[in-house]
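4.2 Preliminary Data

To establish feasibility before requesting continued support, the project team ran the inverse folding procedure on a target of 601 residues. The structure was first converted into the token representation described in Section 3, and no sequence information of any kind was made available to the design step. The complete token record follows.
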């Protein structure tokens, strides 16, 4: 961050000379000239000092303008002391001695009591992280320019940040009284942001809002503060009070929806739908309604709402983007492509992400040349590496494994993390091509240069498992656990490996229990717990875990485990149903097909 520069010396001299008859030390005394206007013209003087002809000319040619009255500036000399203090402050700041600069500007503000210098002193003290000096300067700024909302805002924010709430209270009240429309209440969150004690903030807002029971904005500000302090019931009450006072105002409606969503998406949807029925023209509420529908995975209804918004606001890039994403989610490729293609013609901020989606649409439809074209057009930023990886994977899907590997090796990256991603992608392509030994060698060679890289260690262990190298699997995972004791999948993989080989089952269960503590909702870890319980002969408990895992993620290997335990438990019909459902989606899964073959010969 660069030092905030003060205006050059000549503008400072104009600040101090404006409205007074001053001269530099050791210079002859002359009446001060009026400061030039922005257009370079001299301001109109008192008409009494002009000849009659000049008055007439002025009356005929000068445009009428409403001039905001300037704050009353102090009468003072631009003395050597003042000039020295200013130069000291400016030079110290330019040389990085911001503490000295802040102190010098604070002294200058005290001596001159000029609001513009006090403003500058406040800014520099804030930059120097000297809150006491900033508060002192801000007080001078506000005292010398009491009509300045900016000065009042700066002073209240500084006092709040310094935990001087009681001292800030009268200033906050003065700020709110400057506008009887209640608009000041909407700025309270920003003014109070420096206070990390949310309960204290709530108390302060309650005291500020209490004299204004008929102002909707006061209730809304109180609802915001209550929500921040985790007082949900009070927040709901105040949001509803704001809506009752101003029924067509969307902000309290949106806040109430946010609070209701903590209870359930259904309640939030009901509330938003009721408002839209009365006010269908509200874009903010409709946008929120559509997003909550997405959260509820009601993609068709959500897309309909976004399409309504798209008709009303055809150039709103966020809406066009949302319709594209939801259409892709619903596999409506034509509509998704139309919206993403249109985004490229609009001023959308992240066009590389749009190109990634267009490539995905082409890839999903197996239009690989088109997918490669879009991935190739991703120019940089965060999407660049992902685009290069997908480019190689598309080549691999076309059977061009050597070309795909060559492409990955040609991608220039600067970080080790990016290199690891490229290596893991290359290993995955080899694994998909049934070349597990080549993938194992590739990762093993990479570990010689990065022996403690967690992702490489985990992938090496998984490849060792494929090659039935249980010794390397176990040693790699144990090393990974030492390096990253919170790596849930390392515990899970080691526990599952033991369970699958029917070895050291109590130890396996303990490892999987640790994994569940770290990641309790992970369906693969839940599956592992079911599998180890099955190996221990606890079929009833095993089925509880396996059913939960499959309901969360109908993965073919989870289906294989669930089907096996159901079959062993005598539930043949349900087992066959699970297997049929899984094979219809993933007919080529080796683990699934092997399990079915063992039990249905």
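Position-by-position output of the design step:
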């Amino acid at each position: 961050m660069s030092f905030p520069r003060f205006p050059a010396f000549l503008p400072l001299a104009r600040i101090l000379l404006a409205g007074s008859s001053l001269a530099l030390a050791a210079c002859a005394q002359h009446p001060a000239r009026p400061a030039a206007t922005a257009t370079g013209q001299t301001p109109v003087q008192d008409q009494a000092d002009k000849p009659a002809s000049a008055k007439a000319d002025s009356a005929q040619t000068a445009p009428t303008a409403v001039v905001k009255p300037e704050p009353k500036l102090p009468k003072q000399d631009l003395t050597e002391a003042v000039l020295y203090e200013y130069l000291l402050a400016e030079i110290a700041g330019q040389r990085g001695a911001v503490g000295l600069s802040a102190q010098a500007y604070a002294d200058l503000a005290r001596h001159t009591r000029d609001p513009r210098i006090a403003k500058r002193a406040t800014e520099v003290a804030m930059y120097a992280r000297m809150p006491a000096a900033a508060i002192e300067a801000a007080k001078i700024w506000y005292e010398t320019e009491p009509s300045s909302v900016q000065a009042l805002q700066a002073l209240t924010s500084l006092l709040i940040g310094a935990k001087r709430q009681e001292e800030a209270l009268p200033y906050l009240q003065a700020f709110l009284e400057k506008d009887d429309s209640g608009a000041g209440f909407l700025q309270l969150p920003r003014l109070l942001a420096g206070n990390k004690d949310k309960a204290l903030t709530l108390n302060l807002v309650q005291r500020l809002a209490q004299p204004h029971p008929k102002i909707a904005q006061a209730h809304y500000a109180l609802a915001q503060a209550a929500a921040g302090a985790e007082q949900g019931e009070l927040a709901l009450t105040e949001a509803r009070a704001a809506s009752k006072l101003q029924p067509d105002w969307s902000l309290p409606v949106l806040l109430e929806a946010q609070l209701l969503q903590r209870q359930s998406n259904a309640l939030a949807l009901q509330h938003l739908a009721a408002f839209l029925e009365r006010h269908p023209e509200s874009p903010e509420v409709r946008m929120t309604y559509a997003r909550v529908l997405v959260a509820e995975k009601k993609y068709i209804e959500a897309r309909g709402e976004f399409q309504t918004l798209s008709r009303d606001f055809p150039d709103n890039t966020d809406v066009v983007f949302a319709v594209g994403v939801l259409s892709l989610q619903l596999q409506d490729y034509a509509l998704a492509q139309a919206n993403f293609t249109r985004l490229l013609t609009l001023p959308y901020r992240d066009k590389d992400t749009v190109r990634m989606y267009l490539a995905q649409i082409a890839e999903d439809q197996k239009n690989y040349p088109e997918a490669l074209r879009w991935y190739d057009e991703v120019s940089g930023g965060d999407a660049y590496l992902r685009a290069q990886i997908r480019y190689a994977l598309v080549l691999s899907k076309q059977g061009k494994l050597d070309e795909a590997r060559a492409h990955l090796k040609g991608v220039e990256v600067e970080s080790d993390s990016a290199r690891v991603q490229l290596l893991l992608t290359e290993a995955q392509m080899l694994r998909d091509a049934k070349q597990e030994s080549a993938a194992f060698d590739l990762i093993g060679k990479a570990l010689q240069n990065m022996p403690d890289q967690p992702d490489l260690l985990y992938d090496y262990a998984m490849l060792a498992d494929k090659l039935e190298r249980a010794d390397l699997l176990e040693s790699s995972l144990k090393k990974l656990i030492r390096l990253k004791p919170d790596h849930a999948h390392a515990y899970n993989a080691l526990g599952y490996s033991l369970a699958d080989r029917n070895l050291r089952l109590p130890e396996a269960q303990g490892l999987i229990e640790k994994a569940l503590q770290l990641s309790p909702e992970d369906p693969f870890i839940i599956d592992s717990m079911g599998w180890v319980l099955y190996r221990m002969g606890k079929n009833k408990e095993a089925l509880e875990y396996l059913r939960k895992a499959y309901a969360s993620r109908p993965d073919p290997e989870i289906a294989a485990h669930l089907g096996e335990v159901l079959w062993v438990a005598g539930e043949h019909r349900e087992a066959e149903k699970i297997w049929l459902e899984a094979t219809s989606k993933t007919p080529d899964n080796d683990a699934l097909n092997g399990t079915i073959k063992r039990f249905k010969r």
